Amino acid sequence: MRLVMKRLLSVHRTTRLVLPMALLLGASGYPGACGERYYVNSVYNVWTPNPWANMRKYRAFVDESKARGFNSINLDISWATARPDGSYDFSLFDRQVSYAISKGMYVWPRLNCSLIRGREPYWFTDEMCMRDINGNIYKHTNGRIPSITHQVVLREMVRFCEAVAKHCGRTFKVSPSGVDPIVCMPFSFTPTLETEYFFDGELDYSQSARDGFAKWVRSACLSLGDLNDKWGASYKAWDEVDLATAHPTAKELYFESRLQILLDLVGDSVHKASPRMKVGL
Hints:
37% of the residues are buried. Strand 1, helix 2 (55-67) and strand 2 (72-78) form a beta-alpha-beta unit. Helices cover 35% and strands 10% of the residues. The strands form two sheets. Strands 1-2-3-6-7 form a five-stranded parallel sheet. Strands 4-5 form a two-stranded antiparallel sheet. It is of the alpha/beta class.
């Protein structure tokens, strides 16, 4: 099946992000400049109540991590820290990052745009959830999944990532010797804090995904006749073309393009907010 796409290159071009969470070699001024690796231990602020809000416990964890040879701490900050006035609550995040830095640790702030364990932004509604082919909200053991085809979700993810980058850029400075304590900001939105569009092999059939697909497929195909020929279908009008019955390859290309758009927006917004910040998957 061949889809003639006007923006094929924009779908497949390399995103403006880096891959951080493996043991990466760093550039000058980072761990790795002389072959040293990042050894990262993780703190997940996803629990209610959150045990890591107890700073005595958190400090003990960082201290033991340092003693056992780790040189980096990965900790998440959730978009659920959003306030109605448009700001975010960075209070716990600042205490955690500051302590790790004070112990000579590098920090990987994870940009957590998931709905894990019910931690959802105050503005989030059911219509913004990823849904299965029957229209039911997709539910994972760890929580629901936001649909990145929904324009409010897309906007708020980007706004949150930009706010964290700007805050980190202003609050956590590069040392006099030129070492940046903030290595990279991994971005995630699934119930396991990863960066995948669909989870467990399920695609998103929310209304926003269906509407977006209808627009995308018309821009991607030469004509309805060409689409019928390639898909082995017999559509008589464009409004009959639906995500649920689309060719599997077309679905994957569509969702790939949505993920590419999101990652590019996140990468651009973070770099705009603080040029020294790096974003990862």
